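User: Could you write out the 3D structure of this protein bound to magnesium ion? I've included everything you need below.
Assistant: Certainly. Input first, then the structure.
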Amino acid sequence: ESEAEEYRKRREITVEGRDVPKPVKAFRDVGFPEYVIQEIVKAGFTEPTPIQAQGWPMALKGRDLVGIAETGSGKTLAYLLPAIVHVNAQPILAPGDGPIVLVLAPTRELAVQIQQEATKFGASSRIKNTCIYGGVPKGPQVRDLQKGVEIVIATPGRLIDMMESHHTNLRRVTYLVLDEADRMLDMGFDPQIRKIVSQEDDSESTVAANVPPPQIRPDRQTLYWSATWPKEVEQLARKFLYNPYKVIIGSQDL
Ligand code: ADP
Ligand code: MG
């Protein structure tokens, strides 16, 4: 117990939430399957970054989480490796199924970068992904979605477009990532994010009185990432995270 605290102090890891798991010191302590470890080794990484050391055991618990760490601190793999494990634990896609993992990102450039990591680390388990962003023709993106992909990385506007034209749906999304939440809010994506996150599972009608509001789905894990933690970011997080873990790297008064 105090060993975990000592480690957190040394690496400037602050945690909040109920039943926080211990941070991991080495890649092999996470409990990742061997195919994930192999990719990490191939990438030449020597140890988890602080956000990974604490974020991985949290994400693998299946709970919602808020991760705050500066740019360049390894947030992408902090959510992508658990996403890959998650996908591999799900039944395979059936025709017409939408993605299992959805990553929302503010810009095309960032979405493409995330896709490159998803491709690299998902290849050995044959996970298919695609990137959905505006400013380019829809045809190739539509064809990818129709083929069926487990992971979609998207900017909010084009994703809503694809949903409204029934080229994809979020019924199977059980792992939802909001990357660079602060930038997405700065860019005015708040309404689009709310719309995407609150998509109801229209495969069943839930009218019982004590069903949680649609933005909080018991079958969906939501991971919310940001470099900064201003009030607006916190408000959005509070709206759709259930019993989240929170991990902050570095100075606490962000
Ligand atoms: P962030 O999203 O926090 O800005 P990134 O996920 O883009 O950071 O990671 C920044 C860089 O660090 C990338 O080139 C990534 O491949 C690399 N990286 C990720 N994890 C590790 C690690 N454990 N050790 C070394 N480099 C890493
Ligand atoms: Mg990032």
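Confidence is low (pLDDT under 50) at residues 201-209.
User: Perfect, thank you.
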